[in-house]
Amino acid sequence: MRTYRDIKPENFLLYSADDDSHIKLIDLGLAKRVGANEVMNAPNGTPYYIAPEVLKGSYTTQCDNWSMGVVLFIMLSGKPPFSGKSNKEIIDNVLRGEYDFNANPVWENISSLAKEFINKLLTRQADERLTAEEAYNHPWLAEQREREFGNVAISMDVFTNMQSYIEMLQLKRTTLSLIASRIPED
What tens digit of pLDDT does each residue of 17-68 get? Predict the structure, then answer.
């Protein structure tokens, strides 16, 4: 069994430019082969996507399911469930585990089954969170597999929110690069 420990949208690529391209997961630098219930304690991950138990220093492969819940939240709304102006604020929000579907009007057009699926992935207690197999068999995901080749309407608000999120990440990276370039080597 493997745990990825850094699932985030930036680590998914399309294999080709085709509409029906396969998705590839990249950057396996934090991935680790583990036993079924092996407990890990190295703090790994990216603040927006990191599971609360990773921050607490004792976690299993369930941390990846939390991260997938965050990715799905972003895919459906264009915004992360746990945000903040600094990494500390983001991490504090992750530890609280509070998010609000009503904070963004995009969620009005998202099915209750999708919201239930996200809720079950973003359960703070890892042992109560959906396993990968349970997530794969969840009715909402099964419904998506059935509709895979149909036309799905996506609200323009999702695209606007995604663009804002991407621009914010780019600004943050540029700022951090500038700061890093000005720090003396000693």
Answer: 877 778 888 888 888 899 878 999 998 889 999 999 999 999 999 999 999 9
Q: Which of 98, 140, 86, 87 is nearest to 123 (CA)?
A: 98
Q: In this structure, is residue 31 part of a structural domain? A: no
pTM summary value: 0.78
Residue 142, both tokens: 């099964």
Domains of the chain: total:
1
* Known catalytic residue at 127: no
**Which residues touch 97 (CB under 8 Å, ≥6 apart)?**
52, 82, 122, 124
CATH number at residue 140: 1.10.510.10
What interhelical angle do 156-182 and 62-77 show, nearest 10? 120
Range of the domain at 151: 43-182
Q: Is 141 exposed, middle or buried (0-12, 13-18, 19+ CB in 10 A)?
A: middle
- Catalytic position from the list 6, 19, 20, 64: 6
